[in-house]
Amino acid sequence: MFFDSLADADASAGTDFFAHEMLADSLPSNFQLKIFQTMKNASKKCKQVLATLFLLLGLLVTGFSAPPVITDCSCPSPNVTITSQATNAITFSWGAVSGAIGYQAWYVRSGDNFTSQQMTINGTSVSFSNLPNGKYEFYFATDCGGEVSQIIIMDDLIMG
Questions:
Q1: What is the CATH number of domain 81-158?
Q2: Is residue 146 within 8 Å of 101, Cβ to Cβ?
Q3: pLDDT in tens, the chain (160 residues)
Q4: Do 142 and 148 contact (CB within 8 A), yes or no?
Q5: Which residues contact 15 (CB under 8 A, 6 or more apart)?
Q6: Sign of the torsion angle spanned by Cα atoms 8, 117, 111, 83
Q7: Dihedral, CA atoms, 160, 140, 102, 150, nearest 10 degrees?
Q8: Which secondary-structure segment (H or E) carries 157?
Q9: What is the largest CA-CA distance in the chain?
Q10: pTM of the full predicted structure?
Q11: What is d(CA 103, CA 92) in angstroms, rounded to the nearest whole number?
Q12: Distance in angstroms (rounded) separating the CA atoms of residues 24 and 105
């Protein structure tokens, strides 16, 4: 199912499905699902960017060294900052993005690669609490209604 959906997304974006299929097996299935969920709601221009990001991620995982050129989306990414951090919790905020109808956020915990549910946020901040100690990557994107921005990744170490 993932490859059929990626093939449809690639066909509509004019990108190379076969290169992605060869690299997909090296990625954890939760990353494949996140990429598919983001691509299926993106505009043609952002599908090209997301397909390129998928290819780049595959290249990094498999050890290839020539990353492709990434084009810009017209939907701006949020400018995310950490606004507070406490025991097993963290809060992020950003300024409102013109044209945004909402924002998406989720995290991946290193070590066990646990991936949280993707959250839709209507405001300009989000808090994550009850986080076990560990290293996290927090992901953010702007939803411009039919187009999703490039994903912003914030790394942090959560301590109890």
A1: 2.60.40.10
A2: no
A3: 344 444 454 455 444 444 444 444 445 555 555 555 555 555 555 666 666 666 555 555 555 444 444 445 689 999 999 999 999 999 999 999 999 999 999 999 998 999 999 999 999 999 999 999 999 999 999 999 989 999 999 998 888 7
A4: yes
A5: 47, 48, 51, 52, 55
A6: positive
A7: 180
A8: strand 152-158
A9: 47
A10: 0.58
A11: 12
A12: 23
Per DSSP, 27 falls in state: S
Hey, what amino acid is at 96? A
Which residue is it, tokens 């993106």? Answer: 42
Q: For the chain, give every residue range classified as CATH 2.60.40.10.
A: 81-158
Go through the chain and tell me how many residues it has.
160
Tokens for 94? 């950003």
In angstroms, the CA 62 to CA 78 distance is 30
